[in-house]
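Hi Y.,

Following your request, here is the sequence exactly as I used it, all 260 residues.
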Amino acid sequence: MEYIVVCLVAVLISALTLFSSFGLGTVLMPAFALFFPAPVAIAATAVVHLTNNIFKVFLVGKKADRGVVLRFALPGAVTAMLGAGVLGLFANMPVLYTYSLAGQAHEVTLIKLVIGSLIVLFALFELLPRFNQLAFDQKYLPLGGLLSGFFGGLSGNQGALRSAFLIKAGLDKEAFIGTGTVSAVIVDVARLLVYGMSFYLVNFRGVTEIWGLVLAASLAAFLGAYIGARLIKKVTMRILQIIVGVMMILVGAGLATGLI
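Below is the corresponding structure, written out as tokens. Let me know if you'd prefer a different format.
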């Protein structure tokens, strides 16, 4: 079941992410979190996100604005490592609260509470028109890199903030897409370095079995990226965005309350 859900999400969102507001990592992480512990879900998503963006670099990366990448992505790489480190600390915190519902025991942990809350926050950020149209002047690019990098490292959610800061950078459509893709690769590499030390060296139950799913999701994302670059010129599928956003809110609430 996890292969079907994760791969379908990877194909669909990877195809739309070149042109739509929701990013691959924003939606794929909750899909992984349905089946695996939150730290493993975030780290696995980062691997898929990185490999998919490297593939996209070959498709659209040549249009990236190097100056904007340097001002935005380099600060983001630093805070991505910081956010990933904070996530590692949260993963080792004790259970906050335990309760029983319908005969089942549920635990509320700090990491699930934080990640679940951030999923809900970023889903609302991308769903509500007021926030969806948010944009910042290009003089704030370094600040945008710092913020999006930190939240990318902490929760895997960075696409909405990245777009909000890059949209006013004076880039045409192709340069905007290329710059965002290259910036995402730089942030992904930075956070994966910390994830590698924090998560993959820890003996999570079943962590060795997740690589098959990560590989399948990566291949599915490649297919989605190819479809998006070749066939989709402009996607404004608001109904799909609403459906995905509501599902993200439900998953986020489930994580935060210990139901998932």
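Residues 127 and 245 are 6 Å apart (CA to CA).

Thanks again,
Q.
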